[in-house]
Structure formats: C-alpha cells, structure tokens
Known about the structure:
Pro_imino_pep, Proline-specific peptidase, alpha/beta, Rossmann fold
Amino acid sequence: MQTQAPAPEGLIDVPGGRVFYRIVGRDAPGTPLLVVHGGPGLPHDYLEPLQALANARPVVFYDQLGCGRSDRPGDRSLFTLPRFVEELDAVRQALGLSRLALLGQSFGALLGVEYLLRRGQEGVERLVLSGPCLSAARFAADQRAHLAAMPQAVQDAVAAAEATGDFDTPAYQAAVGAFYAKHVCRLDPWPACLTRAIEGMGLPCYLHMWGPSEFTLTGTLAGYDATPELGTITVPTLLTCGRFDEATPQTTADFAARIPGARLAVIEDASHSHHLEQPARYLKAVEAFLA
C-alpha cells in the first residue's frame, strides 16, 4: 500500500466521475488483493465472502462507474471497456497498489485480463479469474446450451421475446428467473449480499454492454475475445468455476490451458456464484493460491 494508508473507504476520481472503494484488513501484512466485480454493473456487495481473505492481506473492493455507491452518469458512451481499464488503473494508482494480487469475477475477470493485456503485468503478483467470461461468443454459446436443457416453456418464452424484442413480458422474466436459479445462484433464497447488489445494479451499463439477460447478448461486448492473447499472461493464475456455472468447466479449462502454468479449480455443487454457494471450498482454494 502507499506510505500513508488511504482511508478505509471513500471516493476516487476516475475518467467520467467518481467511484466508491472500501478496504477490509487495511493493516494486514500481505500483498493487497484488488477485487474486480462483474455485471457489468453489478456492485461489489455480492462478493462479501471475500472479506475473509483480509486475515492475511488488505482486500480492496470498488464499485465501477454507473453502479452501487459510485457516480451514475447518464452518458452511456462512458460504458466502454477501454474506459473501465482506465478506471481500474486510476483506482490502483490512487490507492498506491504498486504490488497487488488481482481477483476478477465474471465480467470482472474479463476486465482484469484486459487490464493486464493493455496496461502490462508489472507489480501484479497473482491473478484469480472466477467464473471467467473471456470470450463473449463462447460465453453466449454456453448459455444457449444451458438454455436448451431447460423446460420447453422457458425456451419458448425466450424465443418469443427475442423475436419481438419485448423483454419485459412476465413470461420472459420468469424464464430468466428459472435460468438464473440453476446457473447463476442455486441458493434459495439468494443471500442478502447478492440481493443488495442487484438492488444497486447499474442496469443501463449492463443493457448497453451485454444485453437484457445473460443468454441474450446484444451489447457492445458481443465481439470480445481474449483467447488469442491468453498465452502472453505470465502472472501465476488460478481459474475457478462451479460445476453448473455459466462459465462452464469445459470452457474454463480451455482458458486455463492457454495461460502458461495456470491452475483450475472446479467447485462441485455450485454455479456462477460458487463463492456464495460453497464459500469454504472457494476461499480455501483462493487462500492457498494467494499464499
């Protein structure tokens, strides 16, 4: 961390506005862990179990622009991957994180990888990619395969909404709920921290960059694919996914095979939110890797 420790929480100026950050275990001795949330537009609250890692190191959370406790500008032109890379770098610089470990979940894994590819890997000692989306087309194809295994009524509701462009129908929303209950978070009810994150979600960002649901990809990230460049990552890397994850074990294993020396941990009885569904198993794997 920087010589004069930053406040436990506050706001940081980034391109386009200010973002909220929070540090847990500020005085812990280990290399700080910077956590990059997913969505895009889903604030960091749902990653609450990662606070347990602060027994050995500072754990830094932040809400990306457009969601949570960060500014919510009306200008959607700010919702671009290059600007989010600049934002991540601004957070790192403001908090004096010259040495750090980086953990990205879902879209956060995509953003973390993009940061390393565009800004370099210096000072990044470890990389954790949880439920990684590193190829939008492959992620979308995996969701289509999941969808094909859902009840016919769910498939019909999705097909009807995509044919008309009306994604607000009760049938489509029910289909989304059924899909998410199987592949996003299998807990019932969903944990309070996940519910809180959804309440603070920046929906304009999600709709602009991804689309109306995880399996209907219409946003600006549709053409994203980092797989040709994964071989250039030299940071020790751990990839994690759940057995029923949107980021399927097969796809995640392929990403791991492309990153030199990368490790893979598949969490059983869990899906995209495996850090919530099986926190002890997840934290044990991450803790061992960071140590």
